[in-house]
Amino acid sequence: MSILDARITTLFAAGLLPLLLSAACNGPTGDDKDAADTDTADADTDTDTDTDTDTDTDTDTDTDPVYDGQEVFRFDTFGDEVFWTDTLHMNELVQTLSPNAALGVGLKVDAAAVPAEVLAGADLDDPATTAALLSLNAVVGVMAEVDESGTITRLGVTCALCHSTVDDSVMAGVGQRLDGYPNRTLDAGLIISLSSYFDDKLEARTQLQSWGPGFYDPYWNHDGLSAPVLLPPAYGLADVALETYTGEGVVSYWNAYVAVTQMGGQGTFVSEELGIDIRHDPDLVTPKLPALRDYQLSLMPPVADPASYDADAAARGADLFAGRAGCVGCHAGTSFTDAPTLHSAEEVGQEPLYATRGTTGLYRSTPLRGVSDHPPYFHDGSAATLEAVVAHYDTQFALGLSEADTADLVAYLTSL
To answer: How far apart are CA 152 and CA 143, in angstroms?
Structure first.
């Protein structure tokens, strides 16, 4: 038994869960990703899980790699350890991080990657367990290299950090993976701000700490502004023409942008409109984008619980939606969006700043499947409830809805 194996066994006895939690600030590496494929194979619930495919190596040819989109989504850092370790030194922070503190900033633990008996007796106040849990790849969206002494030497993050959560089946923040669900308790800004990199950049640290759970500003490091938006769902996009708030392009465009400019992945992203020209050779991002997109488009939205709404009210709401309220004008078809049509902020009554920071200057109508599962609403979270959404459009378009009409529309939206 190696020193690390012995350490893990000891830490298991003391309680492994804390480590999982504190590890969520870390991220995957190419080598660790392969280990994660093995460690979580039994945890996978999607169709890709019946095979254990290395996302960086084609098993049939050395010249044309084949990537598994689920593995890329969950475990591929795109080489972003260069940012999270070499620049932010997050490995040093996580080494001392309290698991309870990690839970408090919204990090999640994949219960299937850790023995049940360990989860049952975990000590959430012991930061020494962090390295052991990281070695199991149990923190959703975070992976790390851990040496024989239990020191976290490299770490990075994956798409799953922000766009997966868990079902809380063990406890809050610990359970089975839910890929595509936005992590609305993740305080990404606070986590990043804790890096020693910001010790002499206090204004930037203050901006990051102002974002709050469930929000992120994907332009803040380019234009110097701080106006975060909600982390969006990554499910239910199969029939959506444009997958982002402002409709810049297909989801692969946004995946490339985020992987390279936000995660720090070692890939290529060039946009004359945004004034960005980042190139890496080898490009660890671009070849994986098609597989990643295919996996994201396979993620289905949650099915509404019939007990969560009144069926008769929902039927009346459906009639209003398609008729007098006119909602179907923008939320049409099976995807409930009129994309690729885009709308001005003035037309739909939204704040204009975020749209102006992208390339379109406009907003896309939000798809509505599973909408009741991810409040608050609008890109900036300005509507706390579906009732508030209906009230907003009632005012914006002078619909003259009664309280009963609002209740019926909310019932219908809840049923989607």
So the answer is: 10
Which DSSP letter does residue 286 get?
G
CA angle, 244 then 250 then 255, to 5°: 75
Q: Please list, residue by residue across 104-119, b when 16 or more beta carbons sit within 10 angstroms of its beta carbon and e when fewer do.
A: ebbbbbbbbbbeeebb
Residue 196 · residue 116 · CB < 8 Å: no
Instruction: Tell me how far apart the alpha carbons of residues 199 and 89 are, in angstroms, rounded to a whole number.
Output: 12
Side chain identity, residue 115: P
The contacts of residue 385 (CB under 8 Å, 6+ apart) are 375, 376, 377
236-283 pLDDT, tens digit per residue, is: 999 899 989 999 988 999 999 999 999 999 999 999 999 999 999 999
CA 383, chain centre distance (Å):
20
**Do the Cβ atoms of 245 and 229 come closer than 8 Å?**
yes
Tell me the one-letter amino acid at 97. L
Q: What is the DSSP letter of 367?
A: P
Q: Three-state SS for 278?
A: strand
Is the omega angle on the peptide bond into residue 376 within 30 degrees of 0, that is, cis?
Answer: yes
Q: What are the structure tokens assigned to 152, written together?
A: 């976290």
CA distances from residue 217 to 113, 137, 258, 266 in whole angstroms, order as listed: 31, 27, 11, 20
Cα 182 to Cα 117: distance, rounded to the nearest angstrom:
28
DSSP state of 354: H
Per the omega criterion (within 30 degrees of 0), is the bond before 282 cis?
Answer: yes
pLDDT tens readout for residues 120-177:
777 878 887 777 778 889 999 999 998 988 899 999 999 999 999 999 998 899 899 9
Per the structure block, which two tokens stand in for 288? 């994986």
Inter-residue contact 369 to 393 (CB < 8 Å): no
